[in-house]
UniProtKB/TrEMBL annotation:
This is Hemolymph juvenile hormone binding protein (JHBP). InterPro entries: Haemolymph_juvenile_hormone-bd, To_sf. GO terms for cellular component: extracellular space. Residues 1-23 form the signal peptide. Gene3D superfamilies: Haemolymph juvenile hormone binding protein. Belongs to the TO family. Pfam families: JHBP. It comes from the Eukaryota. Keywords: Biological rhythms, Signal. One of its GO terms (biological process) is circadian rhythm.
Amino acid sequence: MHRHRGTAVIVLTTLLLYHDTTALKASDLFHICNRNDPQLNNCVKEAIEQLRPKLKSGIPQLKMPSVDPMFIPKVRLVQGSGPVSIDSTFTDIYVTGITNFDIKQVTVDLDNYRVDLQMALPYLYLNSDYTIQGRILALPISGSGDSWSNYTVVTGTGSLIGHKESRDGKDYMKLDQFKFSVDVAHADIHLNNLFNGNKELGDAMNRFMRSNWEAVFKEMKPVVDEAITSILTDIARKVFDRFSLAELFPVG
């Protein structure tokens, strides 16, 4: 008798969880924009802005953790030519500041399954573990340890590109790629434990990188771009995989 009661509870719980997930509507998460709205671009811009608190806290219905701080397991940068020639790996990367975004412009092209956007942020702060070997502006650099970097007055441009995919009689936007590029007004990059912990050499290299931050950031930029792109791609993919185009952009 008790065994059957336990089985019934498990089945009921499973059904309730399944019902809760399948009952989720796009309008439960964000403002819905009509496909024919002449102000569609502004509507989507406002919808993204209104999503900010949920991005900060996370969206468990979509299995989406908080993006502030963002966590990226690993990014590798191999730069073989130019003023910076390094082989570096950054692991356990945490990025803070992303939800302070200010959306400047959004362009929605539903016929070609594309969304372009421009945003600005006061800052992005990254901390991570690292290993590095190579040369920066003709000076050798090597080491492994923890690092931090602070990027201020950040601007970002992104292009979300996809194609139509039909499932169960509904049309979805299948994400092909999300290109995102960051530019900054200033960058401060600091690597601890350079040169096997030689403090004098390490401090000198960190001062040198601060003085030549533009050249250093130009070569480190792929790490920042990839870190942010990986998270934004995950967010976009979960939204567009879960909700059909008719749900996200109804015709009214």
